Amino acid sequence: MKEGKISPTQLVFLLFLSRIFSVLEQTPSFGDSFSGATLLLSTLLSFVMQCILVIPMLLLFYRYQEQNILGCAFLASPILGKIAAWFFLLLFLLHLSGGYAIFSFFMTNIVYPKSSSFLIVLLLAAVCTACACYGLQGLARAGTVIFTLFILTTAFLSFAAADNADALNIHAIPGDGFSQIIESALNSTSKNTEFFAMLMLLPKIAKPQKKRACAFWFLTLTFLFIELTQFLILAVLGDFGMEQTFPYYALTTVIDFSIFQRLDSLHVTLWIFAAVFHCTLYSICISKCTAVLFPHKISRFTPLFSLAAGGGLGVFFAGNMQFLRQIKLSNSLFLTLVAAVFPLILFIILYRKEKRHAPQKGISAPAAHS
Amino acid sequence: MFTSLKGRIQAIKQAASFKGANPAGEEPDHPISPQLNETLISLRTRFQNSSDLMVREITLGGVKTALILAEGLVSQQTLSEILLEPLLTHRFPRNAGVEAVRNFVENQSILAADMLPVYTYNELFRFIMSGFVVILIDGAPRGTACGIQGYSFRSISEPTAEVNELGSKEGFTEPIRVNMSLVRRRIKSPLLKFELFPVGKISRTDICLIYMTDRVSAKLLRDVRRKINGIDLDVVLTSGYLQPFLTGRPWSLFSDVGSTERPDVLAAKVQEGRIAVLIDGTPFALIIPYLFTENFQTLDDYAHSAFYASFIRIIRYFSFITSILLPGAYVAISTFHPELLPQALLFNIAAAEDTTPFPIGIEALIIHLLYEIMREAGLRLPRPVGHAVSIVGALVIGDAAVTAGLIGAPMVMIVATTAIASFVVPSLHEPVSVLRFAYILVGMSLGLYGITLLSLLLLVNICTLENFGQPYTAPVAPFSSFAMRDTFIRLSFRTLQKHTATLQELNGSHLSEKNQEESS
Q: Residue B469's closest chain A neighbor by CA?
């Protein structure tokens, strides 16, 4: 697997495309039973929450420019490093297989009802493994192209949807109480599992001083896209959209433009793009975990491990979606603990450690670790 | 003239030192003997009395002298006029001695522009086989090589593979020195440098690196020299022999080493900081490194107005995508997603395909296979017969097969459109042909899902390609905004003249020292 730095813009696009996977598959039946107005407001609140959540991570990575979360954990204590590596390995594996399962669920229910989920997962896993083998740089460069396509397609879909929008749907948006807005915001925040990927990849950018901008633009782009899609769903489908399993897909099926009778194939194509980026990113993160846990002789087989373990679990989850829901991979408390509290604890531990050692050794911490 | 001579001497010295001073292959080099007979015996033994080795022994001022040359490589007229005549008509004093004869040959009679000393056997073989006449004087420790090459070669003509509407009609030809002169005529700058040396243990083919000393990246130059130095081939006959050694990923479908038949294109590329490689005996030069977007640029783009050039470039990108995707997408949509087609179109396709015995995917595969066979046949056969093949193919496939109900008319149209679209970007013909089949297979078995997955895999593969530290997909990914003025569109020369962008300036390039530091 090739190692190399990527530009901050490339990382923003990568994270955005990965995040889009969970945005496009948002299923209200999985718990989002809120009104349209609540969703729109809560997305804004969720954006603010995520901006706060990212602060400890940035603090840590600005001090230890070249280290990712595992590197920092190893600096704090080798045992903690190993535990963190195993924890993140399992976490990424679960998210990877969850991604495969949700993708397979959508494809076998909507696009190819006669296909087996095994075949769908196997193909996706094989492609993601191959892409992961090409390395982060190749994926990041491809992300630039796909992001451009994505923006163009979204603009086209929005333009086409505008024709089908009904003002009545917007006026009739009912409102919920503040507690529902908070609940919805927490729910929306918990779905941003790309925070975990950020913990591994943020130090990989070529310009370390751009980490803050990188995080900010990722969150802003995601926020804008979610707001836009939710607004379109509300404007075109109204309450009907809130009842759909895949509301964005439902939106594209009702849009017609010129000779195109339906635009769901565009949505499916975009979602496949997003799925590949999402799963490949997690495969790469798995590789980063195994690289610190095992010697190179073993860790070089990580892509195969990701293919077998991720694919296998993916097929299992695809057949047991209820089980996947019970695991609650997206949980706001868990996200806060892992993405914000853990980096904060590491920051405090390392800071205290430096304070203890600096007067004796006479060197500053960043110089020692970078 | 003298600059050229000096350059040549330098090049030959460089050549001698380039591969461990063993130009004749495996055998170690030895100095030539002052005894003429000994040298001639050794020479004949090494050449195994080959028919084309000519040795003319004469006596000058009582000293035995030999003229050695390879038949067919030397101009007979020049040999008589500027070499034999002065030597034979000069009045040497009786028993003039070795030094007097050598002094006359080397200093007093200007026999040829190219006159070089010969010290070793390997130099001797090399000069003879490069069309030099070597004069050996009995008792002298070195010989003299006179460059009076004169072999027949194809004259300069219009390139066949890169046809141009408004540009020059001159294309490269086979002899390397003629090609070097074609480039020199276009860039009359002392900063343009030619570096000549032999490659191939047996063939000793001359190859020439061409670059602008002020624009080329030192790292790139060093790496290219190192890679060429590592080539261990016995024979180098065409540019294709060297290409795999210069590419970043030999197993990729797309080549990151460019090829051109045009001196003007080569001059333009060299101006952007690239290195060109000319190979003796082939009219195709290699360009290193080569970017994906360059496949869509032609010299005509710079001869037409900016708006038209931009329009044509976009057409080329569209054609490339069409030539790869259209058949596969058609098969996938017709087989798995007919709901995507407008109703009227769907009914027409259904009516046409209703009478055919094969599924659409198989039909597409068969017709594309036939098309590739006909294309290859038309290419290999003599031109008049090639045209006949095309006519027969068009009649058989286009008319008879449809009339007989073997294939549907829409499929014929798809194949024809795809074929024509693939002609728009000839440099990508190889990957396009292979990918088209891959897309048909994926489309017929997995539908749009498979097509999307394959496209992504291909995209990531292309984006991963790097040659000598230059990303293949630059300036799109990594993105360089300033390079966009001459990528998908071309801006006016009023804008382009402000700065000629070099490779090192593109984002993501590891060729410049600055970027290397950044990435390390």
A: A4
DSSP A86-104: HHHHHHHHHHHHHHHHHHH
Inter-chain CB proximity B336 and A2 less than 8 Å: no
Report the chain A residue with the minimal C-alpha distance to residue B343: A261
Query: Could you tell me how many CB contacts below 8 A there are between chain A and chain B?
Result: 93
Residues of B in contact with A65 (CB under 8 A): none
Please state, in angstroms and rounded to a whole number, the distance separating the CA atoms of residues B399 and B381: 24
DSSP-derived letter for residue A6 is B
Tell me which residues of chain B, numbers 475 to 494, contact chain A at a CB-CB cutoff of 8 Å. 476-479
Residues in chain A with CB shorter than 8 Å from the CB of B476 are 144-145
Gap between the Cα atoms of A199 and B295, Å rounded: 39
DSSP string, A35-49: -HHHHHHHHHHHHHH
B63-70 and B53-60 beta bridge pairing: antiparallel
Q: How far is B352 from chain A (nearest CA, A)?
A: 21
Taking alpha carbons only, the member of B60, B74, B75, B148 closest to residue B105 is B60
CB proximity A120 to B under 8 Å: yes
> Could you tell me what percent of chain A has a pLDDT over 90?
44
Residues A169-228 pLDDT 10s: 766 566 667 788 888 888 888 888 899 999 999 988 888 888 899 999 999 999 999 989
**Do the Cβ atoms of B456 and A131 come within 8 Å?**
yes
User: Whole-angstrom Cα distance, residue A75 to residue A83?
Assistant: 13
Contacts of B441 in chain A (CB under 8 A): none
Strand pairing partners for B278?
Answer: B208
Q: What is the pLDDT of residue B520?
A: 35
Instruction: Enter the pTM of the model.
Output: 0.84
d(CA B315, CA B319): 6
| Among B446, B478, B518, beta carbon nearest to A141 | B478
Is omega for the bond preceding B478 within 30 degrees of 0, making it cis? yes
On whether any CB of chain A is under 8 Å from the CB of B234, the answer is no
Task: State the Cα angle at B389 between B385 and B392, rounded to 5°.
Answer: 130
Q: Which domains does chain A have, with CATH numbers?
A: 8-369 (1.20.1740.10)
Structure ipTM: 0.90
Using a CB-CB cut-off of 8 Å, the residues of chain B touching A139 are 460, 463
How far are the Cα atoms of B56, B208, B263, B424 from residue B180, in angstroms, in the given order?
32, 8, 9, 29
Whether B163 contacts chain A with CB within 8 A: no
Contact B183, B192 (CB under 8 A): yes
Q: Which two tokens stand for residue A149?
A: 């396509």
Domain extent listing, chain B: 2-147, 176-301, 304-464
To which H or E segment does residue B193 belong?
strand B192-199
Min Cα–Cα distance to chain B from A173, Å: 32
- H helices of B355-428, in order, are 360-380, 383-393, 401-403, 409-424
Contact (CB<8Å) A123/B479: no
- Round to whole Å and give the CA distance between B340 and B328: 15
pLDDT surpasses 60 at B212: yes
Which residues is B67 bridged to in the sheet?
A: B56, B135
DSSP for A197-256 reads: HHHHHGGGBS-GGGHHHHHHHHHHHHHHHHHHHHHHHHHHHTHHHHH-SSHHHHHHHH--
Q: Do A144 and B476 touch (CB under 8 A)?
A: yes
Contact A139 B460 (CB under 8 A): yes
Q: What angle do CA A338, A339, A343 make, to 5 degrees?
A: 90
411-470 in chain B: CB under 8 A from chain A: 446-450, 452-453, 456-457, 459-461, 463-464
Taking alpha carbons only, the member of B21, B209, B242 closest to residue B126 is B21
Tokens of A229: 């899609």
For residues B158 and B258, the answer to whether their CB atoms sit within 8 Å is no
